[in-house]
Amino acid sequence: MLDAKDVMTSPVIAVGPDSTVDEVADILLSHGISAVPVIDRGTLLGIVSEGDLIRRAEIGTVPQGRTWWLHLFTNNAAQAEGYLKSHSEHVTDVMTHQVATVIESTPVAEIATLLDHNRIKRVPVLRDGQVVGIVSRANLVRALVVARKGWRAPALHDDSSIRMEIVDALRSESWPSTSDVTVNNGVVTLWGTYLSEQERKASIILAENTAGVRAIDDHRIPLDMTYGLV
């Protein structure tokens, strides 16, 4: 199981609280990154991403046309904060203050869930409260590439062990319906029925990802068809 420390980018490109919007934009473009943390003496203050810079007065992308009744439901502080974010040149006015973080030992599975749940693209990695790295979606994709290169072991696998591994894997999942598995010279044949096209495809992928499998021969039929054959 990979942890944050295994996939994170380090050292971290960051800016200070006195930085300007111009400086942040230059850093994002020159380094080909989509966000930078704002750090003061090692302490994380916030993060500035491309998303924080796309609603700006200079390029005419500030939301317009607020109706009078919508103003009734938006308090003064929120309206003023929106103005600061779209007009200020100070990074502390533009940055996102509430930042999700992880520590070095956080499993990548938890990080993926965090990114997905919060609809964000990266999380800072902390050690004793100090930023030591960044894990982004791109880092997880790179980890995927490395993992898939070593996914299949080069050793030979006999048909019996291949079949047992597939059967055990199917039993460990919650979605398979009735299936029988035979293996001959690395060719896996699936028999029986399936409830949905998604299940059919998932079980084929499960078999394909088993070491030693050379091909898949699927002879299963949809479960609803069995009623017509009775």
Please tell me about this protein's structure.
Helix content is 42%, strand content 21%. It has 230 residues and is an alpha/beta fold. It has two domains: 4-147, CBS-domain (Roll); 159-229, BolA-like (GMP Synthetase, Chain A, domain 3), CATH 3.30.300. The strands form three sheets. Strands 6, 7, 8 and 9 form a four-stranded mixed sheet that branches. Strands 3-4-5 form a three-stranded mixed sheet. Strand 6 and strand 7 form a beta hairpin. The longest helix has 14 residues, at 159-172. The protein is elongated and about 65 Å long. The model has no long low-confidence stretch (mean pLDDT 87).
> Averaged pLDDT, please?
87
CATH topology (level 3) name of the largest domain = CBS-domain
How would a textbook summarize the main sheet? 4 strands, mixed
Structural class: alpha/beta
| Helical amount | 40-55%
Low-confidence stretches: none
The coarse overall form would be: elongated
Domain count: 2
Keyphrases for this structure?
11 helices; 2 domains; alpha/beta; three-stranded mixed beta sheet; 42% helix; 230 residues; GMP Synthetase, Chain A, domain 3; 21% strand; single chain
